Amino acid sequence: MQNNALLPLQLISTGLFLLLLFGGVWILNKYKRLFEFDPDMPSENSSSLNYNKLHVIALWLHALLLTGAFALLLH
User: Fold this and answer.
1) Predicted confidence band at 1 (pLDDT cuts at 50, 70, 90)?
2) By the 8 A CB rule, do 20 and 57 touch?
3) 59-65, long-range: CB < 8 A, 24+ apart
4) What residues contact residue 26 under an 8 Å CB cut-off, 6+ apart?
5) Of 48, 54, 61, 70, which alpha carbon lies 20 to 30 A from 8's?
């Protein structure tokens, strides 16, 4: 029998997981517009753009894996 005290945590972690999943899809759809070259920033080059992309993707993946693990472990 499942403990009813964990139900709010299950709902929150599952909701956060789904929110992050849809957020990642939104980022992929807007990828070109979000990470394109800005002519108003003279110090911006391709390596700094790639570095920013890597940070966003790494942060998103870590958050997705963490919430997914909580959602699966609590069920």
Assistant:
1) very low
2) no
3) 60/20, 60/23, 60/24, 60/27, 63/20, 64/17, 64/20, 64/21, 64/24
4) none
5) 61
Cα–chain-centroid distance for residue 45? 24
Distance CA 26, CA 11 (A): 22
DSSP string, 11-44: HHHHHHHHHHHHHHHHHHHTHHHHSS--TT-TT-
Tens of pLDDT, residue by residue over 13-53, are 889 999 999 999 998 898 888 878 777 777 778 788 888 88
Q: Which residue has the tokens 């890597």?
A: 54
d(CA 22, CA 29) in angstroms, rounded, equals 11
Tokens of 22: 């849809």
Gyration radius of the chain's alpha carbons: 17
